[in-house]
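idk why but the lab printer keeps eating my pages so im just putting this in chat instead. protein + hexanoyl-coenzyme A:
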Amino acid sequence: PHYHNIITESHGKVGLITLNRPKALNALSSDLFHEVNDALVKYDDDSNIGAIVITGSERAFAAGADIKEMSDQTFAQVYKSDFLGHWGKINDIKKPTIAAVNGFALGGGCELAMCCDIIYAGEKALFGQPEIKLGVIPGAGGTQRLVRAIGKSKAMEIVLSGRNFSAQEAERWGLVSKILPSDKVLDEAIKLGQDIANLSQPAIQAAKESINAAFELSLKEGCHFERRLFQSLFSLNDQKEGMSAFVEKREPKWTND
Ligand code: HXC
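predcted complex ->
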């Protein structure tokens, strides 16, 4: 498909989505976000793809929702169109998603990164939820995902002050899984995606589904859900293959069924 605000290209089994509105520091206009949704769904439906990486530029992952697009909107308009309601799409993607973040990841940019399953950050990446300084609050899950990732006191400090935080803070707090030299972030994210894509895809899908269930269920229900999913994997050829390969001291050949 022909996109105007993003570039898509696959690297082996990894689908790469590059946000590409350089003049606006990749501000997430509605058009851009609809294209991201479209690309995500296409990769999720593509059986040759096993993981998805989202990245921006060296200067900005994304500097937030498009403030120029939002500034004149009325309550009636944003309410009737359920503005930002379309953000849910990324949370329904079954395949693993990795954010490769350099530069600014602010507002909706930070929220988009937090919607991904894993965040790799360049050493100069800068995160933040500056919405309070615009007279609003995060609107795409920022208050909810930040508090789950880094706890109440830090989430409150960040959202109420609107101050940015560094890649080093983000990594220390557990929001980011790894910090890398800026020019290595994307390569390493693709490499991680490739490693994941080379494993049994139904097992990967179950693992992601089970971890995400932890955000919705009690510990007892979550462990029950996990155990049932675990048991269900014994219906797959990949379970037989994985375990017999171990016993026979050879590499497994996954067939994804
Ligand atoms: C629209 C934006 C933008 C944004 C930057 N630009 N961020 N346009 N929406 N969020 C545009 C600028 O207007 C400018 O265009 C160009 O990008 C370059 O930006 P500069 O400000 O000149 O660059 P710099 O001085 O380096 O400052 C970078 C910056 C600053 C610190 C990131 O741009 C900034 O504070 N941006 C806004 C960050 C923010 O508040 N984000 C939260 C948005 S609200 P022109 O044409 O003027 O040169 C939000 C709500 C979440 O995200 C709801 C869920 C989606």
